[in-house]
Specification:
One of its GO terms (molecular function) is NADP binding. Keywords: NAD, Oxidoreductase. The protein is of the alpha/beta class. It has 2 domains: 174 residues, Rossmann fold (3-Layer(aba) Sandwich), CATH 3.40.50; 108 residues, N-(1-d-carboxylethyl)-l-norvaline Dehydrogenase, domain 2 (Orthogonal Bundle), CATH 1.10.1040. 47% of the residues lie in helices and 13% in strands. The protein is built from 13 helices and 9 strands. Strands 1, 2, 3, 4, 5, 6, 7, 8 and 9 form a 9-stranded mixed sheet that branches. The longest helix is centred in the last third of the chain and has 29 residues.
């Protein structure tokens, strides 16, 4: 898909009216969530621990699943038919969408797009992993309409999303990041948040982190396959790795599951999305003249794996 055109806008004066008042309590705030997929649904469920009413939108109806996830809280929610309605009815809206194409469709296309709900003071927090130009474009469009924008891609997959232990890599409007309501929301969904400056920096950091993850898992997978080919115990390999300098939480989590193959676990992070992130990181490396040979090899392996698993009708995991 061609890159979204980028328009830079001048920030509005800091005295403009905000829907989120400086002293507004979380219990009085209407929170929206757009995108209730593998990540978005548990993130929204964690928001329900404090925010008592949410407005949500998803391409397919997830009402029953979200209701079950909120069963142990006092929260209620309204499911609406268009993304614009989420923004219109809420003070602050979080989104978690999978690709630039999805963001274009949901935020920028049609009368029901999220952008058409933005008015002066609305706050948008986009947790998607996209390209820098995608984040900058959405931020500019939100600000043109008087809204505030924070990019907040996350480090972590389905498990941390369920546990409320994601790491948020934020950039954009510092006043929105610092607002008590935004901080409360980030604390409910994550264990730590970082403010990294201008819009785009959160995406840069996320892509750097995810290309490292891809390279690590590609090499780790090769080690498991090689140990099996040499008639060595994979359990012994995993324990030896865990006792040395190479020990990593990701290896401890993924290793026992990886040795059982595709049938060993449910989807935490679809391979197509992991490959997307590695590919975007490679694009940044090429732009800056950085040799990305290791990431390139990992990307090639993920493409081959994705093709093979799709041919067998299985949902790939990473």
């Amino acid at each position: 898909m061609p890159a979204l055109p980028l328009r830079r806008v001048t920030a509005r004066p800091s005295h403009r009216f905000y829907c989120l008042a400086p002293s507004q309590a979380a219990s009085d705030v209407k929170v929206g969530f757009i995108g209730l997929g593998v990540m978005g649904l548990p993130m929204a469920a964690n928001l329900g621990k404090t925010f008592k009413h949410m407005v949500v939108w998803n391409r397919t109806d997830k009402s029953d699943v979200l209701q079950k996830a909120l069963a142990e809280t006092d929260a209620s929610f309204t499911s609406v038919s268009e993304p614009a309605d989420v923004v219109r009815q809420c003070d602050i809206v979080f989104s978690m969408l999978s690709t630039p194409e999805a963001v274009r469709s949901v935020f920028h296309e049609g009368s029901g797009s999220a952008l058409n709900g933005v008015t002066d003071g609305k706050s948008i927090v986009d947790c998607s992993t996209l390209r820098i130009e995608d984040m900058e474009y959405t931020a500019a469009k939100v600000q043109e309409k008087g809204g505030r924008f924070l990019e907040a891609p996350v480090s972590g997959s389905k498990g941390p999303a369920e546990q409320g232990s994601l790491i948020f890599l934020c950039a954009g409007e510092k006043a929105l990041y610092d607002h008590p309501v935004a901080q409360e929301a980030l604390d409910l969904m994550g264990k730590r948040s970082f403010f990294l400056g201008d819009v785009g920096n959160g995406t840069k950091m996320k892509l750097v982190v995810n290309q490292l993850m891809g390279a690590m898992l590609a090499a780790f997978g090769e080690s498991i396959v090689l140990s099996e080919a040499l008639d060595l115990s994979v359990d012994d390999l995993l324990e030896i790795i865990s006792l040395g300098a190479m020990s990593a939480p990701m290896f401890a989590l993924k290793g026992p599951k990886m040795k059982h193959g595709v049938k060993g676990y449910d989807t935490n992070f679809p391979l197509e999305h992991a490959q997307k992130d590695i590919r975007f990181a490679q694009m940044l490396g090429d732009e800056k003249g950085v040799n990305m040979g290791v990431s390139s090899a990992a990307n090639g392996k993920s493409a081959i794996s994705q093709s093979a698993w799709q041919q067998h009708g299985s949902l790939q995991q990473f």
